[in-house]
Amino acid sequence: MSKEAFSKGLSKYIPVEAIDTVYGWLEPHRIKLKISKPRTTKLGDFRVRSRDAPAQISVNGNLNPYSFLITLTHEVAHLKDYEQRGHLREAHGPTWKEHYVGLLAELRCTKAFPEDLLPALDQHMRRPKAASCSDPNLLDALRTYDDHQSLRLKDLQEGSYFTLSNGRVFQRGPLRRTRYKCLEPSSNRWYLIHGEAEVTMANVS
Fold first, then answer.
1. What's the first-to-final CA gap in the chain, in angstroms?
2. In this structure, are residues 158 and 32 in contact, taking their beta carbons and an 8 Å threshold?
């Protein structure tokens, strides 16, 4: 893809100051970049179907520009880690962390992030988590740039009923690390749902 086409396609999702840097990361690789519909279980992912097929990075298209950029950076670090090690075992191990922090440092020099995000970003770079949504300090800073302050699963009381973006209704149960054990009444099955999942309250009689 040409730089002009890349810039035109991605400028609606990330700060313009980061376009050149991100294009430089991806241009040498066989990679498909996909903008995904909102997902409740993840913000982005990196997939390799086979050695012969291009790898794929996907990022949820409903993220604010800074959340999108950090999520994309996370997945590019997986791409670089995979090309270095040839596999995805220990996906968030030392090699991935080295790539991730290095890429974030490049972005920090582009002035792509506003000043009030930098303290949380710097702290995140010192101790990178497996996902930005696992870093409450960074997540809270990023959420101030959301178009609306949405209700999150972690904000609900245990026992509350809620609806996900796909229309399915659940009842919030106990916390299991970063995810809540939730019951789907219609199927009587339990699911683990991330505490940062966007929800709406549901009336269940």
1. 53
2. no
| Contact partners, residue 8, CB within 8 Å, separation at least 6 | none
Tokens 């970003």, residue located: 121
Q: Are the C-beta atoms of 172 and 160 separated by less than 8 Å?
A: yes
pLDDT in tens, 85-125: 989 898 899 999 999 999 999 999 999 999 999 999 999 99
Nearest alpha-carbon partner for 126 in 116, 137, 115: 137
The amino acid at 44: G
Reported in sequence order, the residue ranges of the chain that DSSP labels E, i.e. its strands, are: 31-36, 44-47, 55-60, 161-163, 169-176, 179-184, 189-194, 200-201
- How deeply is 113 buried, as exposed, middle or buried, from its count of CB atoms within 10 A (0-12, 13-18, 19+)? buried
